[in-house]
Write a structure and sequence with these properties.
It is found in: Membrane. With about 575 residues, this protein is of the alpha+beta class. Helix content is about 55%, strand content about 10%.
Length: about 575
């Protein structure tokens, strides 16, 4: 804010506040425009106002971005009814200036209001509304370039759309060639960012698509915010349904280091190059982790099913509260593993509805598993009389309501907020988007983990301080402590490791988390079915009874055979004797 002294009077002049912006004033101006009824009579005036306000986009807040996009959406249907080019210019210039908004604001606005997806929808819809005569039309600004051209099936030889972004001394340059990249003048296009469509494109379109296609439009965006010092590049496109970038159908064909990257996609949509800012890319252990996950989940699923069968089929075990809790826990873990194995396949991940369902189900059963793990720890307290007998009677009912009901509430709220868009596809995985991942999974998981540690400490302290005159033998005491340690390590250590596996931390934590998590079923089977004496006795008893039954059957069969042979001998001895 410059402040000058008058050369005549020596008194301070009025401050120059032309470069000072009141952010609240910007929001109020946008609200006033948004509340107006926009029609073809005033759309030019509205677009001019919005263009002027958008020049201050570096001061925009999330609310301002949402309001500005909302105004653009109201003006979009009126473009074809307005003859003046100034309206189109104002709309495109406004969007161009809005890209200058700080990156963190744009990211937050996309997460909460889907403004990024909506802006792309507007940019893609504008070329369809522009009247096109004969010649191709190109429009270029500092951040975006738009190209439109008519196409005919018989004369289509490919298309090349290139943009050369200038600097302070040069302007943006765009061009459209009726040929593919291989046939364009290399001297003119070598420094350009471009999109090239091959001549064979028409062959891959269905008859219905050919009959409706009369023009092809290009929208190119220059995004300085993602141009960071990174070496691992991926070619992706913007998936509007998921509200995120996806690499489906795109690959990096080759690149000139430090200069240019070539992307090949088998579909037409908004795509871009995403920089791996941590420069990790596809790590050397990604394939190992993938194989380990699938094999481990399969082994874990089999072990969990065996554990369920053993504890359900045995009358002695079925009556125990510990067995009921264990069965519910195994069901949750088994369903999680089954959904992961069956649901994380291409036939599910490529369909938005199926992908959201898979992600929501995994989220639910993972949360129920965590809840039943907590119930398991609490049950140990009951086993050593830390909690009164009165509580024990209603323990299972309350535990069931809490363990099955609370995760259902969390998943339902997550689905309801943001129109189910909290569950998305990330690469080839259906899972939670960033914010819900932390609020609907990591936060509850952390609370449960802290609670488990607290209860675990109480259990260990109580068992370690048991008086010698208590009816607990030393061996029983050790077994109880081992049980608590087993529960804590098997169920909680994996989630402790998960907290260290985020961000740039060592991938060793990620590998350990995967191993602990996917092999939980195996640990459950060996601990609760092989190590625990009461379960082991039941298994041995069943095996022993089966052997006895088989032995008894063999003895009966042998006795009956002997008697039959004896009767046959007697009949032979007493029967008629014939001499021929």
């Amino acid at each position: 804010m410059p402040l000058k002294c008058s050369p005549f009077t020596g008194v301070w002049q009025e401050p120059d506040m032309s470069q000072c912006y009141n952010t609240e004033g910007i929001t109020q101006q946008l609200k006033n425009i948004s509340n107006e009824d926009i029609d073809k009579e005033n759309v030019e005036e509205v677009s001019t106002k919005l263009s002027d306000i958008s020049k201050k986009s570096v001061y925009f807040k999330v609310e301002d971005i949402d309001l500005a996009v909302d105004i653009h959406e109201k003006m979009l249907p009126l473009i074809s009814n307005v003859s003046a080019n100034i309206t189109l210019h104002n709309i495109l210039l406004s969007i161009n200036d809005m890209i200058n908004t700080p990156e963190e604001i744009l990211v937050e606005a996309e997460k909460s209001k889907r403004t990024g997806s909506r802006m792309l929808d507007i940019l893609e819809a504008i070329p369809e509304e522009i009247p096109l005569e004969g010649q191709p039309l190109t429009i270029a600004y500092s951040n975006i370039g738009v190209g439109i051209t008519k196409v005919e099936e018989k004369s289509f030889n490919g298309l090349f759309y290139g943009v050369l972004y200038g600097n302070k001394e040069t302007k943006v340059k765009t061009m459209i060639y009726n040929s593919s990249y291989a046939e364009t003048p290399q001297e003119e296009t070598k420094d350009m960012d471009f999109i090239s469509l091959p001549r064979s494109l028409m062959k891959h379109l269905q008859d219905e698509g050919l009959s409706t296609m009369s023009r092809i439009s290009f929208v190119f965006m220059r995004d300085d915010k993602i141009q960071r010092n990174a070496t691992n590049l991926r070619c992706v496109y913007w998936d509007e349904i998921l509200g995120n970038w996806s690499g489906e159908g795109c690959k990096r064909s080759h690149n000139i280091s430090g200069e240019k990257v070539f992307c090949s996609c088998n579909h037409l949509t908004s795509f871009a190059i995403i920089m791996d800012v941590y420069q990790t890319g596809n790590g050397p252990n990604d394939e190992i982790l993938s194989i380990l996950s699938n094999v481990g989940c399969g082994i874990s699923l089999v072990c969990l099913i065996l554990t369920i069968i053993i504890h359900v089929c045995s009358k002695n075990l079925r009556k125990l509260m510990t067995s009921k809790i264990l069965v519910y826990l195994c069901i949750s873990l088994a369903v999680s593993n089954l959904i992961f194995l069956v649901g994380m396949q291409e036939y599910a991940t490529t369909k938005p509805a199926a992908c959201k369902a898979v992600a929501a189900l995994i989220h639910y059963f993972l949360m129920t598993s965590l809840m039943w793990m907590t119930v398991e720890v609490l049950q140990v307290c009951l086993a050593v009389d830390v909690i009164s007998q009165t509580v024990q009677r209603s323990f299972m009912i309350r535990s069931s309501i809490l363990a099955w009901g609370l995760p259902m509430i969390i998943v339902t709220v997550t689905l309801a907020i943001n129109y189910t868009n909290n569950y998305i596809r990330i690469e080839q995985t259906c899972w939670l988007s960033a914010v819900p991942f932390y609020t609907a999974l990591v936060a509850p998981m952390g609370i449960i983990l802290i609670f488990n540690i607290f209860i675990f400490s109480i259990d260990v302290w109580y068992l370690m301080t048991l008086e010698t005159n208590k009816p607990f033998k030393l061996e029983t005491k050790r077994t109880r402590i081992l049980g608590i340690v087993g529960v804590f390590v098997l169920f909680s250590a994996a989630w402790i490791l998960a907290f260290f596996s985020f961000g740039e931390t060592d991938e060793v934590f990620t590998l350990l988390f995967a191993i602990f998590n996917i092999l939980q079923g195996m640990f459950v089977f060996f601990y609760y079915c092989i190590y625990m004496k009461n379960t082991r006795d039941v298994i041995f008893s069943c095996v022993h009874k089966r052997k006895e039954a088989n032995t008894r059957g063999n003895v009966t069969y042998n006795n009956s055979s002997t008697n039959r042979e004896r009767r046959e001998v007697e009949l032979a001895e007493t029967g008629p004797y014939l001499n021929i």
